[in-house]
Amino acid sequence: MNRIKEVLEEKGIKQVWLADKLGKSFNTINGYVQNRNQPSLEVLYEIAEILNVQVKELLLDREDI
Hints:
Blueprint: H1 4-11, H2 15-22, H3 26-33, H4 41-51
Helix pairs in contact: 2-3
């Protein structure tokens, strides 16, 4: 499970913008945001870099699941 949706909302960033920056479709990003799909570690690191956050900020702790 990830916190991509929460981080995007905190930063006021739209999914379309993230999709463009990653070179992925809106549907792919929306799958990540809705936790229907999980990004690979490589993509997770790219997202963290684009959003200027630590990777751990994009992940939920086990206790929170």
